[in-house]
Specification:
heterotrimer, A alpha/beta (433), B alpha/beta (417), C alpha+beta (537), B: 417 residues, alpha/beta, Fumarate Reductase Iron-sulfur Protein, Chain B, domain 2, 22 helices, 8 strands, globular, C: 537 residues, alpha+beta, FAD/NAD(P)-binding domain, D-Amino Acid Oxidase, Chain A, domain 2, nine-stranded mixed β-sheet, 15 helices, 33% helix, 23% strand
């Protein structure tokens, strides 16, 4: 049995954001998670809103339209200003973080268009500085450089598709350079190698004389894990041209950088993290949760808390589950799940890109992000829901994933601090609507 | 019906949990071993992936899984609930059964036997253990790396001390599970634990005849003798548990064995005596923090103007209790604690002792050793004995159990002690 | 128009057609085997993988049972590498017909099927996940057979004996002269080009599509009832022995450990069209409910994929066939001699049959052809092993793991679930010369494991783009086509862990790669497959 001001369930971007905010606001915080969260899988570009469904150029404006058109969308909870506040806070986390001066660039006002590993120009609002030179809205010449040993990034395929975008000229180069000349090295292995100046020198040596005068260089997002700013700057300086990272398939090195940064901030602020525990329910007194129950190995543990942030993710993360009888449940607290077709109705359509009836399922909340039942009444007074658990969005399609998680996690922390009377800062509570 | 009968498709040991794997690769990013050597293809590969290709009637085809150190970090970080390390341990046992058990492994997996043999002749045994020629011979003949840390026999046992010691009556009663480390090699650490617990208001029983918990046998794939060890130890600890007395241990890997691994990995979950003991076992820091959370821990510790580093060993993290040692040490005035940000020191019980794995173990621990060196601490703190020996050998910094810090802060280790 | 000449044209590249091609080629005929798509893509590839011992038929169809007993033994001898010697368990339940167990035993003896009754406790030790409520347990020599491997082995064996195999060639017409079939017109489904084949003899082995073929020669009155069966592949081997409910054949009563998965099957529902056999939710629900009785907890285990196939069950109006439950239609096969039936020579159709008797079916129809041709060439398929079976050893599930172990340090692993390495993938891509990743999938099991291509299909697309010298548009087409094909097999079973996986895959393809906004895609055959050329750097 332990006692904390807040228990945060989930250690992805939403959960860590809420936890850091709470801990830095003076609350005692315990993060309970089944394991490491989705940061390691996400490119961790903060895509506020990429498509509505047309490509979005100005997310701030598009957000307003979205919230008007789709009053059930979770962005209604934070609004454009709440998103902007969250982004400012997020950027600030890096300023004195363990990877400083590694930083994020961009804002909620404009979307950049950055190539994906398959060569689509994808809209993104806020991205690591190491990716920003990949903004090809105005076109440009790009040499995409990959490594044969890195199977999660195919430069020639990328370039072939990218070259078909307006104003873009692209070609691909696959280098046969790898750490210790191994045949199969994942993104993290390359990132460790790129921290090492001698490995960078090998790569630069291979590129000598092979780059066109006006070409920028795209590389997989593996340019360093311990000191990515230094690795990236060194490449830019020595190649004498802009260099940018393109996200690879998981594991995501930029995501690990975000995890390391937020985890370290939480540690410094005294927050505790326990992994490998499964939250199985709660003890309640009236409309409040007074403790969460967690299964640890073969035992149950009880953690008392004044407040609970639920940020366990959606179906991908196990925050939501659908059983073989087609009944959905929220796995940690047993909250009602909205937007799930009845067991006899179809959940998916036969076309992969069709609009699937179950697509926007999740936990429905009130304006204070408290979970509500089918009647719209809050299920608990002191529970706040954040991130991909929320109903009403299809973040992987809208390209709103990390923006939504960051903004709702940020607001969850702010709401709780405000409620507990702790210092939350002026922009702490995002604007509703 | 399924759950009641015990016949359950998912209850088939840990294997069923492989269904939860979505290949996300998070375990691989954390695996201490696969991140330093390509000889180990990584937890996802040898765990949920390879397990789909393993069939009881066929021989184990993948010897590379033997490079798994069994640290368990993969299971801890898996967000999907795959029991990766447990799957690997079971597969490794099957593999070892085929390849046969080396004499070396039979020796290092039985710390109580080596303790029993070495203790009466401690000076001679220690001379052998710490001299170059015998170590070189052991390296070449047995495969125990000559550079690996091996503890010195104390020449007396903790049990012998405990037999003479009478714990004064106190409102709270606990049983102390000391493990092989304290008994044969670090009897003073055992004594300090008893003294601290008494200072904190506990009457301490030391059940007689506590043997090895079987963990080294289990991690070396010798499941049958490991089960015998577990049952033997359980019999010794059961009377305490039967009387509702909590059992606290200072060896964090051995307490984890009784709490979980013997039940999950060795498949002894249907042993009622083990379950009863298991339900009463606590890591000592977990137990003390629990008392503190209830407001029942004496906290009038004396200032300790020291800088220490703290490394939570993998097996301690396997308890799923956070890092209670940090919270306890935070109660000590003037003590500066630097938390190490490392997953594993590399030794993983007996892994780092083996000639073919010693270098890997050193590479795994390199990050931790560098952090400790940079911090220039007065002491390094770590909950597990084999890790302490390894860290001490690699860094030259004296490395102690958190209990020793509290013992000092309680004024029990002053000049008079 | 191009023109080919052959002694024997075999239509249909399933197990039957491949078996016929192998048999005829071994007897020295010059054979062309054609299929409208890839080999083993129809009924054969949509099957659970059970090599029957005959146990399933001993009570109701002793002829079929006897055939299975004999053919099971022969196939074990000639294609051992395609077979895993799992053995089979027949188990009875309390609510079974109480006399069935004894009738089963008696039937086994009549059919000559080796059977042994074992105590229930021993059966549960063998297979701990089996429902402990079983009443009796019998062991029979069932086995698991890899259909793709079988068909490719037979086809390659035929090629080694001079046969030609034309995939993606659809028969669009049969040529007839003087009341005999003399060949066919084909259309290349990838390029649209047409091609004529002059053939001395034509064997129609197109199964559920057989009636459509013979209609091209003006033959009417043959009907094929497509009996739809669905199978759910579970993520891992829940059992290591084929598990059968010992009762009259019904839905969801077989669980087959096949390669790394276990397949539960099957249903039997009359379908209107052999090309339109979507899986319905009711069928999935029914299969799970039945499976749960065999193996309690099955509903919580992970389903990987669901597929449906059609049984080619024949009705011949001239033979007075009436409407019947498809499961009651005899599973034995028959050769339809169109010279006798319709007065059209040089054409035979294979009707009925089952995978276990594919060799016998081929033997019977090639014998009938020899008879019509007046030649006497003995069948050799019971003695000769086709390629990749020469070592005489059964398939080992761990073989890929063992092979991978030897290449851990020097080869890139592309499909992690099914352990497909880069070299094997590139070789196969070159050899097949296909733009279609789905063809590669079937041959190598690429993308058939738990993640259903979530991690490997991007990799495979990048590699195919290089190896096949594809344009970006072609590569995109291939990627998107694979995603749709995969979706077809998973969406009806997306619950539990597989929904979790599918959603992670959505994040990869849509969230990360944004594949739905790929620039325009393109179809058509690869520009050039230059085997000797190095991969472009």
């Amino acid at each position: 049995m332990s006692r904390h001001d807040a228990v945060v369930v989930g250690a992805g971007l939403a959960g860590l954001t809420a936890a850091v905010r709470l801990a830095e606001g003076g609350a005692s915080v315990l993060v309970l998670a089944k394991g490491v969260g989705a940061t390691h899988l996400s490119p961790c570009t903060i895509d506020v809103l990429g498509y509505d469904p047309e490509p979005v150029d100005h997310p701030r404006d598009a957000l307003r339209r979205l919230v008007d058109a789709r009053p059930d969308h979770p962005y209604r909870l934070v609004g454009a200003d709440g998103v902007a506040a969250a982004i400012d806070w997020f950027k600030g986390c890096f300023a004195d973080g363990p990877l400083s001066p590694y930083a994020y660039a961009g804002s909620v006002d404009e979307n950049m268009r950055l190539p994906t590993a398959v060569g689509v120009l994808r809209p993104s609002a806020v991205v690591p500085e190491t990716m920003a030179a990949g903004d090809l809205r105005a076109g440009g010449e790009v040499c995409v450089v990959g490594f044969r040993a890195l199977k999660d990034f195919h430069p020639v395929l990328l370039a072939d598709n990218l070259g078909r975008a307006a104003g873009v000229q692209a070609r691909g180069l696959e280098l046969d350079v790898s750490p210790e000349d191994r045949a199969d090295v994942n993104a993290l292995g390359f990132a460790r190698a790129f921290d090492d100046a001698s490995f960078r020198a090998r790569v630069i040596g291979q590129l000598a004389g092979r780059l066109g005068a006006g070409e920028r260089v795209a590389l997989p997002a593996v340019l360093g894990i311990a000191d990515p700013h230094a690795a990236w700057r060194d490449l830019e300086d020595r190649l004498g041209r802009p260099v940018f990272e393109v996200p690879t398939l998981p594991p995501s090195v930029p995501g690990m950088r975000v995890f390391a940064t937020l985890r370290e901030r939480l540690r410094r602020a005294g927050g505790r993290v326990i992994l490998n525990v499964v939250v199985t329910g709660a003890e309640r007194a009236g409309a409040r949760i007074i403790a969460v129950r967690a299964r640890v190995g073969l035992r149950d543990a009880v953690h008392e808390a004044d407040r609970v942030v639920l940020a366990t993710g959606g179906f991908a993360s196990g925050g939501l589950e659908l059983d073989s009888g087609w009944v959905a449940r929220e796995t940690a607290l047993g909250l009602p799940v909205a937007g799930v077709p009845a067991p006899g109705d179809s959940r998916f359509r036969p076309g992969y890109f069709d609009d699937h009836p179950i697509g926007r399922a999740g936990v429905a909340v009130d304006g204070d992000q408290r979970p509500v039942g089918p009647d719209g009444a809050p299920a608990f007074d002191n529970v706040t829901v954040a991130g991909a658990t929320l109903a009403g969005a299809e973040p992987w399609r809208e390209k709103s994933g990390d923006g939504l998680s960051l903004a709702t996690g940020h607001r969850a922390g702010g709401l709780m601090l405000a409620e507990s009377g702790a210092h939350a800062g002026p922009a702490a509570v995002g604007m509703g609507g | 019906m399924a759950a009641e009968t015990g016949h359950d498709v998912l209850g088939e040991l840990m294997r069923g949990s492989l269904d939860h794997c979505v290949k996300c690769t998070i375990c691989e990013t954390f695996c201490p071993v696969s991140n330093v050597t390509p000889l180990f293809p990584g937890p996802k590969y040898v765990g949920p992936q390879a397990e789909r290709f393993r069939v009881p009637r066929e021989e184990s085809p993948d010897a590379s899984l033997d490079y798994c150190s069994g640290c368990g970090i993969c299971t801890q970080v898996c967000p999907q609930g795959v029991q990766i390390a447990e799957i690997n341990t079971q597969a490794r046992a099957k593999l070892r059964k085929r390849t046969g058990f080396r004499l070396r492994d039979r020796i290092i997996a039985r710390p109580d036997l080596t303790g029993r043999l070495g203790t009466p002749v401690a000076p001679l045994a220690n001379l052998m253990l710490h001299s170059r020629l015998p170590r070189r011979i052991a390296d070449r003949l047995l495969g125990i790396d000559e550079r690996a840390p091996v503890p010195a026999f104390a020449g007396r046992t903790f049990q012998a001390w405990a037999r003479k010691h009478r714990s004064p009556p106190a409102p709270r009663r606990v049983a102390y599970f000391h493990g092989c480390g304290a008994n044969w090699y670090e009897p003073d650490a055992g004594r300090r634990t008893v003294e601290l617990l008494e200072y904190l208001g506990c009457q301490v029983d030391v059940p007689r005849g506590q043997g090895c918990c079987g963990l080294p046998l289990q991690s070396n794939g010798m499941f049958e003798p490991a089960r015998r060890y577990v049952r033997r130890l359980t019999r010794r600890l059961a009377p305490s548990a039967r009387h509702g007395i909590d059992i606290v241990g200072t060896s964090t890997s051995c307490t984890l064995m009784l709490k979980r691994e013997a039940r999950e990995i060795l498949g002894l979950d249907d042993d009622p005596e083990l379950r009863m003991v298991s339900d009463h076992v606590y890591d000592i820091c977990e137990y003390l923090l629990m008392l503190h959370d209830r407001g029942e821990l004496r906290t009038d510790f004396q200032p300790l103007p020291l800088t220490v580093t703290y490394h939570a060993p993998c097996q301690q993290q396997g308890h799923g209790i956070g890092k209670p040692a940090l919270d306890l040490m935070a109660l000590v005035p003037e003590l500066r604690v630097i938390e190490n940000d490392a997953t594993c020191c590399g030794v993983a019980g007996t892994y780092g002792l083996k000639t073919e794995k010693y270098e890997i173990a050193m590479d795994v621990g390199a990050g931790l050793f560098a952090q400790i060196a940079e911090a220039r601490p007065d002491l390094a703190v770590c909950d597990s004995e084999t890790c302490r020996w390894h860290i001490e050998q690699a860094t030259g910094v004296r490395t102690v159990h958190p209990i020793e810090i509290l013992h000092r802060a309680a004024g029990l280790s002053g000049p008079g002690h | 128009m191009a023109r080919l000449r052959a002694e024997v044209l075999v239509i249909g590249g399933g197990a039957t057609g491949a078996g016929v091609a192998w048999d005829a080629a071994l007897r020295g005929f010059d054979v062309v085997l054609v299929d409208r798509a890839d080999l083993a893509i129809g009924t054969s590839g949509r099957f659970h993988g059970l090599l029957h011992s005959g146990g399933r038929y001993v009570v109701k169809d002793v002829v079929a049972a006897r055939e299975c007993v004999a053919e099971n033994a022969i196939l074990r001898r000639v294609i051992p590498q395609c077979i895993e010697d799992t053995g089979g368990l027949f188990v009875t339940f309390e609510d079974n017909d109480p006399g069935y167990g004894d009738r089963f035993l008696a039937g086994c003896h009549t059919a000559g099927l080796p059977v042994e009754e074992i105590p229930v406790a021993e059966a549960l030790r063998m297979e701990p996940v089996v429902n402990p409520a079983i009443q009796r347990a019998f062991i029979v020599p069932d086995a698991a057979i890899d259909v793709w491997k079988t068909v490719w082995s037979l086809a390659d064996g035929a090629v080694a004996h001079g046969a030609r195999v034309l995939t993606y060639h659809k028969v669009i017409g049969l040529h007839t002269e003087h009341d005999a079939v003399t060949g066919a017109r084909l259309r290349n489904e990838l390029t649209g080009e047409e091609l004529d084949i002059d053939a001395g003899f034509t064997i129609n082995a197109s199964g559920a599509w057989a009636a459509q073929i013979v209609r091209m020669a003006g033959i009417e009155g043959i009907g094929v009832i497509p009996g739809k069966g669905i199978m759910i592949g579970m993520n891992h081997r829940l059992v290591n022995t084929v598990l059968n409910r010992c009762a009259m054949p019904a839905d969801g009563d077989i669980l087959v450990p096949i390669r790394t998965i276990s397949a539960i099957g099957t249903t039997d529902i009359r379908a209107a069209d052999a090309d339109e056999i979507p899986v319905t939710q009711a069928e999935v629900d029914q299969m799970l409910a039945e499976g749960e009785r065999l193996v309690p907890g099955l509903r919580r285990a992970r389903a990987l994929r669901v597929w449906s196939g059609v049984r080619p069950l024949f009705q011949d109006e001239k033979a007075g066939g009436a409407e019947v439950d498809t499961r009651d239609v005899s599973r034995t096969h028959a050769v339809v001699d169109h010279r006798k039936r319709d007065g059209i020579a040089a054409l035979l159709t294979m009707s009925g049959g089952k995978l276990t008797t594919l060799r016998l079916m081929a033997q019977d129809i090639v014998d009938a052809m020899c008879e019509q041709l007046g030649t006497d060439r003995p069948c050799r398929t019971a003695e000769v092993r086709p390629p990749r079976n020469e070592d005489g050893r059964y398939y080992q599930v761990g073989s890929r793991l063992a092979k991978r172990e030897a290449r851990l340090l020097d080869e890139q692993l592309i499909c992690e679930c099914e352990l497909v390495g880069r070299e094997r993938l590139e070789e196969t891509m070159r050899a097949r010369g296909t733009i279609n990743l789905d063809d590669i999938r079937r041959q190598l099991r690429l993308g058939m494991g738990p993640c259903q291509g979530g991690f490997c299909i991007y990799r495979a697309t990048g590699i195919l783009h290089g190896v096949g010298r594809l344009s970006g548009a072609q590569a995109s087409t291939s990627l998107l086509a694979f995603l749709q094909e995969r979706w077809k097999g998973v969406w009806p079973i997306l619950y539990g862990d597989q929904l979790r996986q599918a959603r992670l895959d959505d994040w990869i393809f849509q969230g990360l790669l944004d594949v739905e906004h790929l620039p325009e895609t393109g179809t058509g055959a690869p520009a050039a497959l230059l085997e000797e050329e190095p991969i472009p750097a």
